[in-house]
Amino acid sequence: MHSPAVLLDDNDAVYDYYLRHQQNRWKALASYAVLARRFRPRVLFADGAKEQLRALIRAGRPVIYAINHLSTSDPYTVAATAWRSPLRAKIGRVRVLAKDELFVDPEQRRKVDMMGGIPVFRGKDHGIRAVNAAGQRMMDVCAQRLAAGDHLAVFPEGTCNDVDHTKVQSVGSGIGHIAFRAAKLDAAPALIAIGMNYGPHPDPAAELTAADVVGGVAYLRTAILELPPRPGDIARLVKDELQAAVDAAVARY
């Protein structure tokens, strides 16, 4: 299938493509293994969470992972976390929401596509009104991929936290709408919050380098198996769960 340029004006073609896109699983496995060796996250679990995740994967239950956002290297540390956890079995079937600018450079796009990226046109980049239709389509595509058995990783804060790495910033309603739409498709996704921590930040506004995030902590909470019926309530639950995961990651760094 032809790979269209990731442009807002052509978002229908873009999302038609990413509704069906499937990366090469063997290349993805090899790349995730390389990232695991490079970033070496310490993957920790709440009591019973590891066994629960294994059971969800065996059952074929779709899962949405909500992850705090601290660095532009976060997608790579999340990939490394997947390799070092039961999620290794789902590599090749995990979608990751990523801002559209990461799909511009061909080499960068190759890497993001390999990781299962789905582009997001953000209001802060293009204007809220301009991205509305694309945002609706993106949420539909995510819901359909969940209904097809994929897992989905989301950074619901929407941008890197340069205020206080110990406090989850505002969570938009998008993750709630995705879960709501997936439920309408009888997908019934579970929710798992993953808290990332890379140690003390002397200057929260300073951008973390790839070297800064090596050896960080990824803490996985137990899954929420029954989500609230309304998108706004789901988003509020996500923020609470994610803050609890971040608290645990900070405490265990």
TrEMBL record:
CDD domains: LPLAT_AGPAT-like. The keyword Isomerase does not apply. InterPro entries: Plipid/glycerol_acylTrfase. SMART domains: PlsC. Residues 63-199 form the Phospholipid/glycerol acyltransferase domain. Keywords: Acyltransferase, Transferase. It holds the Pfam family Acyltransferase. This is Lysophospholipid acyltransferase family protein.
